[in-house]
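This section describes the prediction task in plain terms. A model, or a person checking by hand, is given the sequence of a single protein chain and must write out its three-dimensional structure as a string of C-alpha cells. No templates, partner chains or ligands are provided. The sample shown here is typical of the held-out split.
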Amino acid sequence: MKFNSRRSNVLSTRGTVATSQPLAAEAGANILRKGGTAADAAVAAAAVLNVVEPMSTGIGGDVFALYYQASDKKMYALNSSGRAPQKADPEQLINMGYDQIPPTSPYSVSIPGAVMGWDEIVNKFGKLDLKTIIEPAYDYALNGFPVSEVIADGWKSSTSKIKEDPNYPEFLNPDAPKFGSIKKLPYLANSLKLIMDNGVDGFYKSDIATKISNHIQKLGGWIEKSDIENHKADWVEPIKTNYRGHTVWQCPPNTWGLVVLMALNIYEGFSKSEIGDPTKELHLKIETIKAAFSDGLFNITDFDVTKNVLPNLLSDDYAKNKREQINHNKAISYEPTIRVDSNNTVYITTADKYGNACSFINSLYMGFGSGIVVPETGIALQNRGAGFSLDKNHPNYLAPNKRPFHTLIPGMVTKDGELKYSYGVMGGMQQAQGHFQVLSNLIDKNLTPQEALNEPRFSVVPWDDDEKDQKKDSVLLESIFDSKILSQIKNYGHNIIVNDPSPMFGGGQVIEINGKIMIAGSEPRKDGQAVGL
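The expected answer:
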C-alpha cells in the first residue's frame, strides 16, 4: 500500500454496513435509515458497487448470500449463480483445439444471476421495494461519481480485455478514468431504470435479454434469450461445521465455501503445543489450506454432482487423515486440480436494528468478467463459464444447464444459536484462505473485526505464471509480517514470495454482534469503510 492508515472499529446499535467503497456503504446505510432491512441495505450497496466498481461486479454477474433471520434464529442461503446455456457444447470447444475455456470468449459467459438474486432476497426478507433500493445506483450512473483510488487502479489494469463497441463507449471513452475524476455510465443508468420500472422482468424478459443473447450469438456463443428468461435463483440448505464452539456457515457447492469448512476441520485438531510459535503456526496454516485445496477444489461444481461427496469431505475422519499427512517441519508439494484467477469481486455485510444480518457477495469474476460489454446497455458479462473443465472425467465438466465451480463465498458464524459474525473476504483464489485466516484471527486470537482484518496474510498460489509449471506452488506473504517470521518460514521449504499488502491478499469486511452492539471492521487494502447508524 502507498500509505499506512489507522482504522478504528465502527460501533453502532441501529444498523451497520461494511463494503469496499464508501458511496456504496453510505447507500446501504441510508436504506437502513429508511427502515429497510439488512437484505435491502445489501442490495442497495451492491447496486451502487455495480456503478462505482464496475470491473468487479454488476448485473452481468452472479450473487450468493447468507441471511440470518433474527425472528426465527435461522440461517438461509441463496444461490443465484448462472448456469451454462442450453446449447453449451464442450465437444465444439475440444474440436476447436481448446483444453480449457478461454476466459475472454463468448463461451465463458454463463447466465447472469445478479438481478434475480437481488429480487429474491428483497422479496423474502426486505421491507422496501426494489425501485427505492436501486435508485441511488441509478443516480450515480446517470449523474456521475468520483472514481476512488484502488478502484481506479483496478479499472486501469482491466482495460486491455474490454471489448466495447466503439459506437457505445461506456467504461473506457477512450481510456480508464483516473482517480478523482467524475465518471458517468449512461447506458448502465438506462438498464438500471428498466429494472427499477419493471422489476426482474426488466432484465430477464426485456430488451436487455434480447441484446445480451443477440450479442453473444454474434460473437459465436451459445446464449439464447430463453436461457436468460429461464434463470432462477435457489434457496438452498447452508453447510456448516463446528470450530472451537462456534458454528461456521457457508453456502454449499457450486461455491468453494466447502474448502473453508474443510480447512477449519483440519486445523482445529492441532493442539496449542503443536502450533507452537508464530512461524510454526504460519507453516501449519499454509499446509492446512493446501490440504483442503487438494480435494476440495476438484469436487466443487453443481450441487447435484457434489452432494454425494460432501459428507465425507466434512467428516472428522477425513480431517484427521488430512491432518496426519501434514509434515510439521517441511512444506509438502501441492499439485492443483483447477486454476483459479482474479481478485475482482465485491463483498458486503450488513446488520439491521431488527437483529437480522446479511452476508452478500456479487461478482463478474475476472476484471470486467469476460470483457464483453453488451452495446447500449453498459452491462459487462461475467466469465464464470471459464470455471468449467473440458476434461470429461472431471466433476466440473461443462454441460448444458449446469452451474460451474464458483469462488464466491459469503460467511457467517453463530454461537449457541445467536449470530456472532457476518463476514467475508473476496478475491478469487484468496477467498477460501482469506476466510480461514480472518476467522482464526477472530476466534483463535480473539481479535476485534478491524484487528482481524489488519493482520498480515498469506496466499497460496498453486502455479508459476512465468514458468507455466502447474505443479509448482508458491506462497505469497505480506511484507508486514514480522521480519523474524519472514526469515524463518523459508526454513520449512516453502517457495516464498514477499509482496506489499494489496487487494491480491483479499478484501474483507466483518460485523461482530456483541449483545446490542454491532462492531464492524473494513478492509484496509481496499477503498471502503464500515458505516454505523
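For orientation: The chain has a mean pLDDT of 93.
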